[in-house]
Design a protein that fits this description.
Length: 444
Amino acid sequence: LGRRINAAMSDLTRSNVVDEKALDSMLKEICMALLESDVNVKLVSTLRANIKKQINLKDQAPGVNKRRLVQKTVFDELCALVDCQSENGDAPAFKPKKGRSNVIMFVGLQGSGKTTSCTKLALWYQRRGFKVGLVCADTFRAGAFDQLKQNATKAKVPYYGSYTETDPVAVAAAGVARFKSEKFDIIIVDTSGRHRQEQELFAEMVQISQAVKPDQTIMVLDASIGQAAESQSKAFKESSDFGAIILTKMDGHAKGGGAISAVAATRTPIVFIGTGEHIHDLEPFTPTQFISKLLGMGDIRGLVDHVKHMNLDQKETMKHIEQGIFTIRDLRDQLSNIMKMGPLSKMAGMIPGMSQVMGEVGEEESSKRLKRMMYIMDSMTEKELDSDGKIFVSEPTRLTRVAKGSGTSVREVEDVLSQQRTMARMVKQVGGKKPPRPKMKRLR
Ligand code: GDP
Ligand code: MG
């Protein structure tokens, strides 16, 4: 899907005039792609109409970059499709009420990732200071309790379950009662996902829900199920009126196209995405990141938001880049920003082309390399940092001094300098005030 939409967008970007015709053919391509990826027909035609309505090419002032405008509108409309947070306030996750026990019930088909996500969410709240307990109300699948027990133990979260009781409603009620009497802040109830008859499963969800009276019900949805997402979420919505969705397995090949239909069909927000099998692999959902990934653009927007959010001062480097300059200090500031942003492998997905670079050496090794580069630059003088690196060529003793000071080798210091030179060359090309050479112009 992403590839097609991107292709459609870049066709438009390449074509010389952005007129009605070009816009129409791009919209047609995008709609076809959305339909093929299981988004519901009505939804797609609404999207198309909205975009057409918003982009009135004739009325645009002459200075407006029309291509940008089209791209931005498509992006924003796609985001709006999965963004229904505003209806429930902008809280990304359920805010437990203080001074009493809050019950969260999980529903979803077997294999969607309920038990895994339960534990992840329990840990998420626990790390924010809440007292959390897990209840296993899956008495259908053999080994379900053992699995929850194992997960809970790993996360150091208290749990409740039974090997002998076969009535899920009874176990759920008993577990919730136990944790309530012990004044837990949050009680998470995991349920079963498979029955001989689907109707039986939905009936069971209704019964458990009546027994534990959840403050929040969360449906867990596997990102890779495609078309089935819509009917599945509708069925669960009817039986157990969930108020939030966790979209799992977003680390795999699935881009989650089907989730768009699920959200639209139930008008229920996705609150978290599961990004791996590990208990820490849970991230708050953000529409812009989701759509960027769907479009395969690399999550530039998320990255920009992230940087803004962290209040990092990029001004100096930006000014330099405009002037076509890139000093060692600029390199250091950029790397330190990247390191502040969190796990490298996650960040890598946000920067186009970066995943390949990271993929070669792996998370730990990249992180180590990055740290050593920082040690090296921290051992430089102010004058060296503000230089373009030539100072090291004219005075090679500086190399040995920095290597010694940072506990690294001359070779590694040279690597840092070479990295900076590469960046400087790129910056000179894209940002320098010098007009492009005529030869380049003809090539474009
Ligand atoms: P349940 O039947 O709904 O309780 O699903 P489980 O929690 O048992 O998960 C089913 C399988 O999916 C397990 O092998 C999990 O490790 C795996 N799984 C769950 N969430 C994720 C995720 O976000 N990413 C990946 N890669 N695997 C996941
Ligand atoms: Mg389970």
